[in-house]
Amino acid sequence: MDMTIDADPGYLRLHRRGDLARRAEAAVARLADCDLCPQACHVDRTAGDAGALAAGAVCRTGRHARVASVGPGFAEERVVVGDAGSGDVVFAWCNMRCVYCENADASMRGKGDVLDARALADAMLDLQRAGCPTINLVGPSHVVAQILEALVLAAEDGLSLPLVYNSGGYDSVDTLRLLDGVVDIYTPDAKYADDMAARRCSRVRDYGTVNRAAIAEMIRQVGPLRLDPDTGLARRGVLLRHLVLPDDMGGVRPVLELARALGGPGMTVAILDSYHPAHQADRVPGLAAPADPALVAEARALARALDLEVVDLGSADEAGPRESRAGPNRGAPSPSVSALPSVG
């Protein structure tokens, strides 16, 4: 693992060698029998959203990505946001079905616009022109092929910002390997230590096994989180997140012990205090309660006792409401993606 931090994002080197385009082509080819996320639906997504839905694709996403919003975001960790806000590209639909999703309109009902590769590339370039320090890809697990395809065009036209891969942690290792040298900063969730809780709350199988392997691969690629000494902003590495659920349904201790085991002492974690009952949370006993401040405080104390580096988020009231990792961040208004060109 290379621990150095280059001046340019790695995807620019891959682009200059032609490797970025080759990876995009390989990923797009897999859409015809899609296995790009752990759901492995083996659906032909090239037929478009309607065809993907009819064929049973969990993500309901066809050939092009559907995007819920694009714009500067201020609700992420301070090391990602900067003064101008992270350049958020929030993808609609999702490869999970979290019953407590705070952004169900986008993640569950697909609110947003379909953008082809050119429009998605232009959205990234607009965020760079707006002064954002990063491109923050929110909920990207089911649209890696579309992201790579757009990134080829964006790199050709001058994109040079670090990429943040901001996922729910339900990611395929094979697909993550397509992003080796492409993504600079990974900010995955570790939602659950227990597969049964994952099935009840997010309708996914084998979350614990999949999540552990995904985080290990992310750490292999980019290592621990490193900050720019001049700006204090993240430049490269992994920041692991855990949203504290009522009654500790996610399993704080085993999740933090996993972070320590995979990342070693100093692994950076964020303990999220933003849970509130949303969507269909009342369908799972216990999830109808709000976050317990005492449990959140205990989680942060445990993280420090395990020699983990805890990112201080402040309170939800101070930072503004933080959506789930599959949803947009609303610390500041984000321009609607509807202003961008879309594909019908």
Number of helices: 13
For the terminal residues, how far apart are their CA atoms? 42 Å
Flag low-confidence runs: 314-342
CATH class: Alpha Beta
Strand content: 5-15%
Mean pLDDT: 89
Radius of gyration, CA atoms, in whole angstroms = 18 Å
Helix amount, in percent? Answer: 25-40%
Major sheet size, sense and barrel closure:
10 strands, mixed
Structural domain count: 1
Region (Disordered): 313-344
InterPro entries: Aldolase_TIM, MJ0674-like, Pyrv-formate_lyase-activ_prd, rSAM, rSAM_sf
Biased composition (Low complexity): 332-344
Domain Radical SAM core: 90-210
Write the layout of secondary structure elements.
Blueprint lengths: L9 H8 L1 H11 L19 H6 L10 E9 L4 H4 L4 E6 L12 H4 L5 E3 L1 H13 L5 E4 L5 H13 L6 E4 L6 H6 L6 E2 L8 H8 L4 H16 L3 E2 L6 E10 L8 H12 L4 E5 L20 H13 L3 E2 L5 H4 L25
Parallel strand pairs: 2-4, 4-5, 5-6, 6-8, 8-9, 9-10
Antiparallel strand pairs: 1-2, 1-3, 7-8
